[in-house]
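Quick one, C-alpha cells below:
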C-alpha cells in the first residue's frame, strides 16, 4: 500500500514494490505481473495508478506488455531492476561532479593567464 506521507507519487511506489519483487526473484523472467485489478486490490490504488506503475516498468525495459494478455517480466530484468533511490543518487553524484567541472572551466575562462 502506498505511503501517502512520503510525498512520492503512488504509481512510483507501486512500481518500486514490483521492481523489488523482480529483483529478489519473486517475479522471474517470463512471469506475468498481477492484473490491473489485482494490483488495485493489493495496493489499494486506482486503475490509473496501476497502469502508470506498469508503464514505468515497461519504460525501464523490465516488462513487456501484450494487449489482452498482460505484462510479463523480461529476461535480465532482475539485473536491471536498480532501486529508484540508488539510480537517483548516482545521477545526483554525476550532476554534482559535472557542476563542479563547469564551475572550474568558467573560472578559468574568466581569469585567463
Amino acid at each position: 500500500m502506498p505511503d501517502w506521507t512520503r510525498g512520492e507519487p503512488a504509481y512510483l511506489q507501486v512500481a518500486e514494490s514490483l521492481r523489488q519483487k523482480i529483483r529478489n526473484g519473486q517475479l522471474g523472467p517470463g512471469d506475468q505481473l498481477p492484473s490491473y485489478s489485482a494490483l488495485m486490490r493489493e495496493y489499494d490504488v486506482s486503475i490509473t495508478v496501476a497502469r502508470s506503475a506498469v508503464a514505468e516498468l515497461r519504460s525501464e525495459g523490465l516488462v513487456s506488455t501484450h494487449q489482452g494478455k498482460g505484462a510479463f517480466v523480461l529476461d535480465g530484468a532482475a539485473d536491471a531492476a536498480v532501486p529508484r533511490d540508488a539510480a537517483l543518487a548516482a545521477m545526483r553524484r554525476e550532476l554534482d561532479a559535472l557542476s563542479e567541472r563547469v564551475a572550474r572551466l568558467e573560472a578559468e575562462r574568466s581569469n585567463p593567464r
